[in-house]
Design a protein that fits this description.
Shape: rod-shaped
Structural class: alpha+beta
Order of helices and strands: EEHEEHHH
Largest sheet: 4 strands, antiparallel
Number of strands: 4
Helix content: 40-55%
Number of helices: 4
Strand order of the largest sheet: 2-1-3-4
Radius of gyration: 45 Å
Number of domains: 2
Distance between the termini: 123 Å
Length: 153
């Protein structure tokens, strides 16, 4: 009986005798799942079904799925809102009153205080202070009063 080995590349090797096929199997050229056609009948079988070859069919390797278990951490569903601080309003009010007073009644210190008030307004804008509108309003009014005081002096 002759055998034809169908390779992984689709090419047919043979016909060869059983002894040659056994030699190929021992050399590793025939795998358990290789297709072998038995001639003259043309029956097609897998190589592991020919007991003389001594090949054992091994199931295909399976890849273990990744671990899907994760440690449970406490989840925060609601972020507590922080109560807005009125420190920005107090600060700008302080700088405004001080700068207007010093500009109107002294010669140099009011400008320093006005500059510090402008820095305070900028910081409130950068930190997105919830009272930003009030801070800018108080600061703006103080600047207008200070400029008006300088002009009317």
């Amino acid at each position: 009986m002759a055998y034809v080995l169908v390779g992984k590349d689709g090419n047919e090797y043979g016909p060869v005798e059983l002894e040659t096929l056994i030699t190929w199997a021992s050399e590793g050229r025939v795998t358990p799942r290789a297709t072998v056609r038995i001639t003259p009948g043309g029956e097609t079988v897998l190589a592991h079904s020919i007991p003389e070859l001594g090949l054992v069919d091994q199931p295909p390797k399976t890849v273990e799925p990744p671990v899907t278990e994760y440690a449970e951490y406490p989840r925060v569903t609601e972020v507590p809102l922080q109560k807005p601080s009125k420190a920005g309003l107090v600060s700008i009010t302080f700088w405004s009153v001080l700068s207007v007073s010093l500009i109107l009644f002294t010669d140099g210190y009011g400008y320093i205080m006005a500059f510090l008030g402008v820095i305070d307004m900028y910081q409130a804008w950068r930190r997105k202070d919830p009272y930003l509108v009030g801070i800018l309003t108080i600061g703006g009014i103080a600047m207008v009063v200070a400029i008006a005081g300088l002009l009317l002096r």
